[in-house]
Amino acid sequence: MKEGFRQSMAWLHTWAGLLTGWVLFFVFVTGTFGYVNSEVSRWMRPELPMTATPPAARLLPVAQTWLAANGQDAERLYVFFPGRRGETQLEAAWQAWPKEGESYGEYHRATIDPATGLEAKDKVRETGGGDELYGMHYALRYMPYDWGIRIVGICTMFMLVAILSGVVTHKKIFKDFFTFRPAKGQRSWLDAHNLISVTALPFHLMITWSGLVFFLFTYMPVPIDTLYPEGPARDRFYEQVYGREDKSENKAPLAATAPVAPMLAEAEKLWGPNRVARIIIEHPGRADASVAIQPHNLTSLSRGGTAMRFDGVTGARLPEDGEKGAASAGFSSALLALHEGHFAGPTLRFVYVLSGLGGAAMIATGLLLWSTKRKAKLAKVGRLPFGIILVDILNLGTVIGLPVGVAAYFWANRLIPAMMEGRAAWEIHTLFISWAACLLYAIWRPGAKVWVELTGLAVAAFGLIPVINLLTTDRHLGVSVLAGDWTLASIDLGAIGIALLFAQMLRILIRKQRAAATQSIRTVTRTAKAVPA
């Protein structure tokens, strides 16, 4: 470690970022899709109607009939109405009572055809949609869930260290905000890294810290395990801190559930027609049943949002609960709400997406700066150490290969037969196979040319997504834009935007390659002239 506090922080910033950079790049890229998960899921199910289905009052009986046939004696019933962020489908779900030794019962969710009242399983293609991408950003893939969240947690802690040490390292943080010197090699990478880091510093701090809060008791289990061991003591903890009432131990006696339609009407009277997002019925058919109705717009900085609650047996409206939990639980809920951004409208959601992509760009420029800096120092040696070659391959295979894999995920959604068994899993397999192919290509073909080739592939992969959509569905840009369905159109337009970003990167790479070739010819010519005949 270097001597001096600032030098030590610079050393810590460099190595904390490098050792976890590729995992963090994956986390930021896939996590950014969490802000448009509904839009991606909508695009990946082109069989769904473009316009919203009938009003909630007409859809409720359809969903209740399906739940009565499929979710008897469930612990909890859900009805999800269309309308939020372009969702046009009616969905219903039920959760079974937990079995002995389990905390949660099985959860089943289905899209319901309002015309027939049956599950639209054979009419809408199976897909992981945006939720699959979002889920990978905290649990990774192809490994046990507990391993995934712990690996991501360790990398997130390293990122928090890298951010804080990076702030200490900067002598002129305000000046860096306005400084970018293009075409200066290593200096340009440093300027880009500083500019992106400083511009979105509040977002990076918030998203990193709140990400750790998500799994706080998994990452630091000792206090809760010591003070509140498993069993009733653990239930008391959740009751004291979060205000949760444990109703799962003993089933209440049977009792008829009050009609939900009048409750829905009362909610729509307050919020307006078709503003109800979901209805949750706790313990249906039991004496302690309750009904919660939530609106589409979550305007409060609370993860649970607002809800209108009713007694499930009498149908009487219940008073507002207020904050039952401790102040720390309320603060935690606000942090998690900031992380997920469910309250964000279209403009703020767009800012969230840009900030997420900025985080990925910050990590990418930091990784590229590390290798560029060391290659410049070793330019005269002629042979690079294995470590720098490995970092170069991982940089290329991840910074370019992962986006290519994401584009392949969208291609797979359109090209895999719509009703093929297990197609959702193969969509994800396609992402990782494409990413692995890019890594292998980077190993097989080292050198500057491979950057140009793979970047060109990324341009084509994203730029052709709207074309593939046009050739395989009737939900292409020509239809969605004319219909004013901007939720559907936003994915095609976003793919074009990303393709243009990679095209700009490709233009810079080609220009640098030509400049290097010209410089090489001049050097050879000067050497030839210097040699006596």
Structure, explained:
The longest helix is centred in the C-terminal third of the chain and has 45 residues, at 486-530. The protein has helices at 5-32, 37-43, 56-70, 129-139, 145-169, 173-176, 186-199, 201-214, 216-219, 222-227, 232-242, 261-271, 327-340, 346-377, 386-399, 401-415, 423-444, 449-463, 465-472, 477-483, 486-530, and strands at residues 76-80, 90-95, 107-112, 276-282, 290-295, 308-311. 60% of the residues lie in helices and 6% in strands. It is α+β, with helices and mostly antiparallel strands and 533 residues long. The chain has a six-stranded antiparallel β-sheet.
SSE layout:
Elements: H1 5-32, H2 37-43, H3 56-70, E1 76-80, E2 90-95, E3 107-112, H4 129-139, H5 145-169, H6 173-176, H7 186-199, H8 201-214, H9 216-219, H10 222-227, H11 232-242, H12 261-271, E4 276-282, E5 290-295, E6 308-311, H13 327-340, H14 346-377, H15 386-399, H16 401-415, H17 423-444, H18 449-463, H19 465-472, H20 477-483, H21 486-530
Antiparallel strand pairs: 1-2, 1-4, 2-3, 4-5, 5-6
Key terms:
alpha+beta; single chain; 6 strands; 533 residues; 21 helices; globular
**What ranges have pLDDT less than 50 throughout 5 or more consecutive residues?**
none
Mean pLDDT: 87
What amount of the residues lies in strands? 5-15%
Q: Reading side by side through the largest sheet, how are the strands ordered?
A: 3-2-1-4-5-6
SS summary, helix count: 21
Compute the gyration radius: what is it? 27 Å
- Please report the distance between the alpha carbons of the first and last residues: 52 Å
What structural class do helix, strand and pairing data support? alpha+beta
Main sheet properties: 6 strands, antiparallel
- In one word, what is the shape? globular
The succession of helices and strands, N to C, reads HHHEEEHHHHHHHHHEEEHHHHHHHHH
Helix content: 55-70%
How many extended strands? 6
